[in-house]
Structure formats: structure tokens, C-alpha cells
């Protein structure tokens, strides 16, 4: 998974303090693996998988199984500290949910899995206006655009016509 995402360290530094404080307020002790997961996630502005996170932790000398990384990510998502993005192949990406509500949305390539992010003020205004019209109390939203990234589109255009649609 090649996520073309830039870490935003100034905001994520506050996120890890916020996440650890929220865990503690809910009675979860801050074990070393849990702290390490929060800190590793804080440096990632955009989605990461449980497996990628586990690899990064292992390289930093923190031994923790991928199942326990996944459980911690689910816990953080349940507490509203992490946003979860489900991928079509059954995988999921996790990223910090910043306390100030600032966020981005995603473009996902259906061919190679590349993920890019976008922000759009007009879209946010439209969603806010819509949220006031519907009967639900809207707490959050996700917007994901799926399609083909420029690299995959170029490869597709370059392929000879008779190989298109064939299984390679
Ligand atoms: Zn993201
Ligand atoms: Zn939004």
C-alpha cells in the first residue's frame, strides 16, 4: 500500500496526548505497546494498516503482535480517536481523528490500491447544510472517491488493445 500522505506533525503531537488522556479517562491503562501504537500512529497523517504499524513498531524495537495492534486500533476507533477506512479487499486503514475536527477525505485506486487525500471547503459546507436538514444528529462523515489513479490509467492506455480485459 503506497499511501502518498504527508505527516502533519504539529497537529499529531497534540493528538497523541489527547489519545492517551482519553484512554486513561476510560479506564484503559497505558501499557508500553499501547503507547507505542498511539505514538507511531501520531506521525501518520493518513491511513496505515495494522500490519504496517506493527512493522514500524518492530523496527523501533517494540514487539507486539499484529492482532493486538488491530485490537488497539479498534479500541481507538470505538473511542472516536481513530478514523477507519475500509478497503474493498477487506483490509482497513486507520488514521488519527484530530480533536479539532480537521480532516481529509480519500481517493482510492481500484487497480493498485494507491490512496491519495483531498480537502474541499465547498464539500464540507454542503455536508454541514445537509446534516442540518436530515433528522439524524450527524456526528461524522466519510467521503471516499474510488477510481483509477493516473499511473494505472497510463498503463491501461499503453497496453495493446487485445490484452485489455484479459487476466494478467
Ligand atoms: Zn487519510
Ligand atoms: Zn469532510
Structure characterization notes:
This protein has a three-stranded mixed beta sheet, with no helix packed on it. The longest helix is centred in the N-terminal third of the chain and has 17 residues. Strand 3 and strand 4 form a beta hairpin. Helix content is 43%, strand content 14%. The chain has a single domain, classed as Arc Repressor Mutant, subunit A. It is flat, with a radius of gyration of 18 Å. It is built from six helices and five strands, in the order H-H-H-H-E-E-E-E-H-E-H. It starts with 8 loop residues before the first helix and ends in a 10-residue tail after the last helix. It is an alpha+beta fold. Bound molecules: zinc ion (ZN) (2 copies). One zinc ion (ZN) binds next to loops. InterPro entries: FUR, Fur_C, WH-like_DNA-bd_sf, WH_DNA-bd_sf. Its cofactor is Mn(2+); Fe(2+); Zn(2+). This is Fur family transcriptional regulator, ferric uptake regulator.
- Helix fraction bin: 40-55%
Uncertain segments = none
Question: What is the number of beta strands?
Answer: 5
Number of helices: 6
Run of helices and strands: HHHHEEEEHEH
Main sheet characteristics: 3 strands, mixed
CATH architecture: Orthogonal Bundle
Strand order of the largest sheet: 4-3-5
Distance between the termini: 20 Å
Q: What is the CATH C level class, in words? A: Mainly Alpha
Bound molecule kinds, no repeats? zinc ion
C-alpha Rg, in Å?
18 Å
* Large-scale geometry: flat
Structural class: alpha+beta
What is the name of the CATH superfamily? Winged helix-like DNA-binding domain superfamily/Winged helix DNA-binding domain
Indicate the mean pLDDT: 87
What CATH calls the topology is: Arc Repressor Mutant, subunit A
Number of domains: 1
Q: What is the percentage of strand-forming residues?
A: 5-15%
